[in-house]
Structures are given as C-alpha cells and as structure tokens.
Amino acid sequence: MAEEFVYDPERNYDEATLAQLRDMEKEIADRQNLISNRIAFDKLSEEYAKEDEIYRTKIQGDLKNRYDYVRKTRGDGNCFFRAFGFAYLEKLLTDQTDLKRFKDVAQNSKSELVKLGFPEFTIEDFHETFMEVVGKVENQCSLDELLETFNNQGLSDYIVVYLRLLVSGFLQKEADFYSCFIEGDRSMKEFCNQEVEPMGKESDHIHIIALTNVLGVPVRVEYMDRGDSLRCNQHVFPEDSTPLVTLLYRPGHYDILYT
Amino acid sequence: MAEYKQLTLNPPEGIIAGPVNEENFFEWEALIMGPEGTCFEGGVFPARLTFPPDYPLGPPKMKFTCDLFHPNIYPDGRVCISILHAPGDDPMGYETSAERWSPVQSVEKILLSVVSMLAEPNDESAANVDAAKMWRDERDKFEEMAVKHVRKSLGL
C-alpha cells in the first residue's frame, strides 16, 4: 500500500520532481557511455534477447547480414544528434574527401545564425567548441581521442547544442515550407525554442531532414520496430542520396551502425 | 563571462546585474527597477541568480531577496516564470506558446522577462496563490501592497 499523499505547502514538489529526474538521468549515465565502443552484433542480440524476441529476430535475420557492428549511445534525448555527429566525424577521420566542404559550411554557419537573429554572444562558445573538434579531425586525431571528446560530457554537449542550433536556424530560415509539418498551434520560432534548441528534446523526422540539409550530410536510418516484418525498414535523408552515416532507430532511440 | 561583458556594455533599461564577486561566476546579484506605469514603479528590487555547473545548458534559478507580493513569485522570493524552465520541466503547466529555457537564452532575456512579469502578472500559473487571488479580485489592495514593498525596497 502506498502511503496516503498529504500535501505539504512548505515542501517544494517542483524541486523534488526535478531531483528525482536527475537521479534517473544519473542512473542511465552510470550504465551507458555517451558513445560506446564498437560492439559485434552477436553480443548485442544476446542483450536484446532477454527483453525482446522481435528485435532478436530482426537482428539475427536481417541487420547482422548487412552490418557488422553497432555503437550504442546514451538514451538522454540527445542521441540522434550525438550519434550523427560522432558517426560523421569518425567517417571523416578515415576519408577526408568531404572535409573541406564540411569545414567551410560549419565555419560559415555561425554568421548565418547571427543573420537569423541569434545573439552572437550566446552562440559563439558552442560554435568555437564545434570548430575545435572539426579541427582535431582535420589534424587526424586518433579515433580514441574523438571517442574521448564525445564521452566528455561538457564538450559532447556543446557539440550537440551546436547541431541543435543549426537545425533551429535551418527550420526558421525555411519556415514557409516546414511550418506545415509541425504539430500544435505554434510558430516555427516557438517550435524551435521548445522542441529543437533545449537539450534532451528528442528528434523527429523534421530534425533529421533539417540537419542533413543544412550540413549537406546524407544519412540512412534503419528502423527496427516491433512490427511483424522480418526486416528493418530503411529510409535515406534526403532521398536518392548516398548516405555517409547509418543509424539504427528503435522507437525512441538512435545508435550507430557499421558495415 | 561573455554574458557579463554583454550586460555591462549594453545594459537594458532598469536592470543591473553581475557576479557577487570575481571568484565565483555562478552567483550573481541583480537589481530590478519596478517598471514605469505599474504599481511597482520606483521600487529597486534586489535578487540573486544561481547558475548550475552546466549553464547555459540548464537555466539559472532566481530569487528575490526582498519582500515582493506577486502571483509569480513564491513567498520565499523564488521567481517562477516559463523562461526559467526547460520544456518538459513544467511545474505550472505553462501555455504552449510560453518562452522556455534553451542554451541560447541569456541572463538579459531572463531579467527582461522578469520586468514584464512585474508589469503583467500571469495569474494562470500562480506561485503565490494569495497574491494571484488578490490581484484578480482586489486590485486596489494588491497595488497598496506593492507600493508598500516599493517603499520598503527604498529603505523608506
């Protein structure tokens, strides 16, 4: 039997709820790195088997035939951005073909955001950190160093914030077109203030479309749901492009896939 | 740091804010002038801002250190407005259009929101229910209270 709830006006329930949320976040943080090492599929399906037969079938019968490894990301609401950022920079470490183009886009993106009305002093720290990490990749840092950067909460979160700002900037710039895709009766600016810019807000299709567009980095997503199909459905953003990064989506979460 | 510079170089009208001391940038003091044309006009209200270690990813907390009787200020001085909360962290069920905390908000934006909160209380999401009731039903009495606190804030 739960104790009967008695409202205590002296107590701050708001803060008690937040403290509980923080405890839950900490528990997840202790269990899962922001970005894990590469894990072979066999090990992964063992993990899933305990909880879910359908996932196990899809991994064994489909994903395993097409991919070799997965990197897991922490489920903190930022996983799409963190997975995308890490996977793409990791790709640039071994293949620098796209690096110069990407660096220019990233470098110029700050003035684009300022033009859209973001106060410069609120975005420059995020931009600077982002460019420093791009610089590391340009100077061919080791994979371990990149992994360490993405597992450093401070640095990693600043990268996520900057990617969020890029999405917000793109959607606000293209608001005429994209406003028909947002839920609820709100302006694009309100949507971005509430669903894109704050940390921990989960990503939807519209976030993915915006990020792949603004950076010019196509991505493939394998959708693994609990549906009857034996295979995962895949979708490439934007359609008909050659993806540089592949992510695995399970409802509510993104990890990274490797061939 | 950049924010402090920004606020010092371009101070918005009626607001002064800065770190309590040079060693600790996570505690700020602010002075807010009561907005003109409202019952808080003429008051100078001191407040404290406390920043979390992950600022600006998370919002600071703000607390008035003087007496203020207002629907959106808890009796102990804590300010309760939507911009001090990230979406999802929703103690008052703010309207969906309300401005929320995000890493590109700033102290300046918060303080400006606080000034408009003083001018236009939001009695839909009240932190001080008595103040909200009085503001709604007995405006004269509410204004009298405000003037009392204005005088007190000036040491009169």
From TrEMBL, chain A:
<dbReference type="GO" id="GO:0006508">
    <property type="term" value="P:proteolysis"/>
</dbReference>
<dbReference type="Pfam" id="PF10275">
    <property type="entry name" value="Peptidase_C65"/>
</dbReference>
<feature type="active site">
    <location>
        <position position="253"/>
    </location>
</feature>
<dbReference type="InterPro" id="IPR003323">
    <property type="entry name" value="OTU_dom"/>
</dbReference>
<dbReference type="InterPro" id="IPR019400">
    <property type="entry name" value="Peptidase_C65_otubain"/>
</dbReference>
<feature type="site" description="Interacts with free ubiquitin">
    <location>
        <position position="249"/>
    </location>
</feature>
<dbReference type="GO" id="GO:0005634">
    <property type="term" value="C:nucleus"/>
</dbReference>
<dbReference type="InterPro" id="IPR042468">
    <property type="entry name" value="Peptidase_C65_otubain_sub1"/>
</dbReference>
<feature type="site" description="Interacts with free ubiquitin">
    <location>
        <position position="254"/>
    </location>
</feature>
<keyword id="KW-0833">Ubl conjugation pathway</keyword>
<dbReference type="GO" id="GO:0043130">
    <property type="term" value="F:ubiquitin binding"/>
</dbReference>
<feature type="active site" description="Nucleophile">
    <location>
        <position position="79"/>
    </location>
</feature>
<feature type="domain" description="OTU">
    <location>
        <begin position="68"/>
        <end position="259"/>
    </location>
</feature>
<protein>
    <recommendedName>
        <fullName>ubiquitinyl hydrolase 1</fullName>
        <ecNumber>3.4.19.12</ecNumber>
    </recommendedName>
</protein>
<comment type="similarity">
    <text>Belongs to the peptidase C65 family.</text>
</comment>
<dbReference type="GO" id="GO:0071108">
    <property type="term" value="P:protein K48-linked deubiquitination"/>
</dbReference>
<feature type="site" description="Interacts with free ubiquitin">
    <location>
        <position position="225"/>
    </location>
</feature>
<dbReference type="InterPro" id="IPR016615">
    <property type="entry name" value="Otubain"/>
</dbReference>
<keyword id="KW-0645">Protease</keyword>
<dbReference type="InterPro" id="IPR042467">
    <property type="entry name" value="Peptidase_C65_otubain_sub2"/>
</dbReference>
<feature type="site" description="Interacts with free ubiquitin">
    <location>
        <position position="209"/>
    </location>
</feature>
<feature type="site" description="Interacts with free ubiquitin">
    <location>
        <position position="223"/>
    </location>
</feature>
UniProtKB/TrEMBL annotation, chain B:
<dbReference type="InterPro" id="IPR023313">
    <property type="entry name" value="UBQ-conjugating_AS"/>
</dbReference>
<comment type="similarity">
    <text>Belongs to the ubiquitin-conjugating enzyme family.</text>
</comment>
<dbReference type="GO" id="GO:0036503">
    <property type="term" value="P:ERAD pathway"/>
</dbReference>
<protein>
    <recommendedName>
        <fullName>Ubiquitin-conjugating enzyme E2 G2</fullName>
        <ecNumber>2.3.2.23</ecNumber>
    </recommendedName>
</protein>
<feature type="active site" description="Glycyl thioester intermediate">
    <location>
        <position position="80"/>
    </location>
</feature>
<dbReference type="InterPro" id="IPR016135">
    <property type="entry name" value="UBQ-conjugating_enzyme/RWD"/>
</dbReference>
<keyword id="KW-0833">Ubl conjugation pathway</keyword>
<dbReference type="InterPro" id="IPR050113">
    <property type="entry name" value="Ub_conjugating_enzyme"/>
</dbReference>
<comment type="subunit">
    <text>Interacts with AUP1 (via C-terminus); the interaction recruits UBE2G2 to lipid droplets. Interacts with ubiquitin ligases AMFR/gp78 and RNF139/TRC8; recruitment to lipid droplets by AUP1 facilitates interaction of UBE2G2 with AMFR and RNF139, leading to sterol-induced ubiquitination of 3-hydroxy-3-methylglutaryl coenzyme A reductase and its subsequent proteasomal degradation.</text>
</comment>
<feature type="domain" description="UBC core">
    <location>
        <begin position="1"/>
        <end position="155"/>
    </location>
</feature>
<keyword id="KW-0547">Nucleotide-binding</keyword>
<dbReference type="InterPro" id="IPR000608">
    <property type="entry name" value="UBC"/>
</dbReference>
<dbReference type="GO" id="GO:0005524">
    <property type="term" value="F:ATP binding"/>
</dbReference>
<dbReference type="Pfam" id="PF00179">
    <property type="entry name" value="UQ_con"/>
</dbReference>
<keyword id="KW-0067">ATP-binding</keyword>
<dbReference type="GO" id="GO:0061631">
    <property type="term" value="F:ubiquitin conjugating enzyme activity"/>
</dbReference>
<keyword id="KW-0808">Transferase</keyword>
<comment type="function">
    <text>Accepts ubiquitin from the E1 complex and catalyzes its covalent attachment to other proteins. In vitro catalyzes 'Lys-48'-linked polyubiquitination. Involved in endoplasmic reticulum-associated degradation (ERAD). Required for sterol-induced ubiquitination of 3-hydroxy-3-methylglutaryl coenzyme A reductase and its subsequent proteasomal degradation.</text>
</comment>
